[in-house]
Amino acid sequence: QVQLVESGGGLVQAGGSLRLSCAASGRTISSYAMGWFRQAPGKEREFVAAISLIGGNTYYADSEKGRFTISRDNAENTLYLQLNSLKPEDTAVYYCAATPVRLGKLTRVVVTSAEYNYWGQGTQVTVSS
């Protein structure tokens, strides 16, 4: 199975940027569709962005469209999330997740947390106003 470790979180002022990384080990991410979720204090975990195994298909939550960019580098075995124009309401722990995909579903994006099998431990993003 794959192990996921997020990094790149931190404290940033509103309007700033961060780049989150999710390094995989154990197995190559070239077998998985992947995504990012976040959880703010007192709130449920919510979908942020997802990317297909092949084809570069992406999908974003409405509040993130135009501000966040998900990408993957299968050769580096790493998933990324570029966060721009950050707002205080983006403050949360950000998690990456992976799920194996079947042949015929390789271009599918997965947006529901229940469909993901593997999760990282999360990285804290704090946006000050």
How much helix is in the residues? Answer: under 10%
- The helix tally amounts to 0
**Structural shape:** globular
Provide the residue-averaged pLDDT.
Answer: 95
Q: How would you characterize the largest beta sheet? A: 7 strands, mixed
Quaternary structure classification: single chain
- The H/E string reads EEEEEEEEEEE
Class derived from helix and strand content:
mainly beta
Q: Calculate Rg over CA atoms.
A: 14 Å
Approximate strand percentage? over 45%
Q: How far apart, in Å, are the first and last alpha carbons?
A: 40 Å
| Count of distinct strands | 11
Q: Give the low-confidence spans.
A: none
Please provide a written account of the structure.
The chain has 129 residues and is an all-beta fold. Helices cover 0% and strands 49% of the residues. The chain contains no helices and eleven strands. The protein has strands at 3-7, 10-13, 18-25, 32-39, 46-51, 58-60, 68-73, 78-83, 92-100, 118-119, 123-128.
Keywords:
11 strands, single chain, globular, mainly beta, 129 residues, seven-stranded mixed sheet
Summarize the structure.
The chain has 129 residues and is mainly β. It has strands at residues 3-7, 10-13, 18-25, 32-39, 46-51, 58-60, 68-73, 78-83, 92-100, 118-119, 123-128.
Topology:
Blueprint: E1 3-7, E2 10-13, E3 18-25, E4 32-39, E5 46-51, E6 58-60, E7 68-73, E8 78-83, E9 92-100, E10 118-119, E11 123-128
Parallel strand pairs: 2-11
Antiparallel strand pairs: 1-3, 3-8, 4-5, 4-9, 5-6, 7-8, 9-10, 9-11
